[in-house]
Amino acid sequence: MLTSDALAGVPHGFGTALAGDMGLRGLPSDDPALAPVQANRARAAEAVLPGARLVGVYQVHGTTCVEAGEWTDDARPQADALVTDRPGLLLGILTADCAPVLLADRAAGVVGAAHAGWKGAVGGVVEATLAAMERLGARRADIAAAIGPTIGQASYEVDAPFRTRLAAKGKDGGEARFFAPGTRVGHWQFDLPGFVAARLVDGGVGQVAVLPCDTYADVGRFFSFRRATHRGQADYGRHLSLIGLPDRRRSVRAHIV
After folding, report:
1. Strand, coil or helix: 149
2. List of residues 6+ apart from 218 with CB closer than 8 A
3. Residue 113 in contact with residue 102, Cβ under 8 Å?
4. How many whole angstroms separate alpha carbon 116 and alpha carbon 71?
């Protein structure tokens, strides 16, 4: 699990391939194929926030952000971000090239996690997450955010229509700055982590950090949907990124015992 200095003091971690595949894939929780995945998830959760309850969502590349609840894996709501102010809950987001974003307002005691692929990032999943954190008492200027392992610009080739559509959504075509000329005519290299970071900054977030990782290029450390697709592989692994608030009562009890 990787961590970010921007979230120092807040229990969190970004998964890697070395931690194992942690993707639920929409299978029922009693499916035998999920046993190793559940074991990997349990180890990661215990490493980040011992004794916490892991809560995730059924990700659909959308923009919905929900407040974390006590639902089971089989009853996960369709959403791509979640927030909480409840100690003892651990928020989990799955990615394999998309940007995992972990956020925390230490003063308010509010944390969030978002899955930001290009569709969600363009649609406003970052803004939805910030608004949800505000509803729980967070202040944008007090929020620190870290973007974890994501496909890098050098590895993310897109076509000209993609660039045109995205640039048109920005003010005065400002989104064009996230594209560099590609190696093929009519193609461009898209900076997804840079785009997500800009949405956070524009949203008023006080501190934004980006881990210098490329999930596509770093074969030994990361899973990659795009790499698996290019290689014709039937499946690919998922990283689990986690953030939560420690249960102070649990810590006090443990210390007393």
Report:
1. coil
2. none
3. yes
4. 22
Sign of the Cα pseudo-torsion (65, 73, 117, 123, in order): negative
CA dist 174 → 166, 177, 197 (Å): 10, 6, 14
AA letter at 43: R
- Residue 252 pLDDT > 80, yes or no? no
Q: Dump pLDDT digits (tens) for 86-143.
A: 999 999 999 999 999 999 999 999 999 999 999 999 999 999 999 999 999 999 999 9
Q: Which of helix, strand or coil describes residue 24?
A: coil
Residue ranges and CATH numbers for the domains of the chain are: 5-156+191-256 (3.60.140.10), 157-190 (no CATH)
DSSP class of residue 25 equals: T
Q: Read off the tokens for 177.
A: 């700055």
Other C-beta atoms within 10 Å of 25: how many?
12
Q: For residue range 40-70, what is the model confidence (pLDDT) as tens digits?
A: 999 999 999 999 999 999 999 999 999 999 8
On average, the pLDDT of the chain sits at 92
d(CA 109, CA 254): 21
Share of the chain above pLDDT 90, in %: 82
User: Using CA atoms, how far apart are residues 94 and 82, in angstroms rounded to an integer?
Assistant: 12
> What pairs with residue 13 in β-bridges?
242
Angle among Cα 195, 59, 48 to the nearest 5 degrees reads: 80
CA R_g for the chain: 18
- Could you give phi then psi for residue 116, rounded to 5 degrees? -120, 85
* Cβ atoms within 10 Å, residue 135: 12
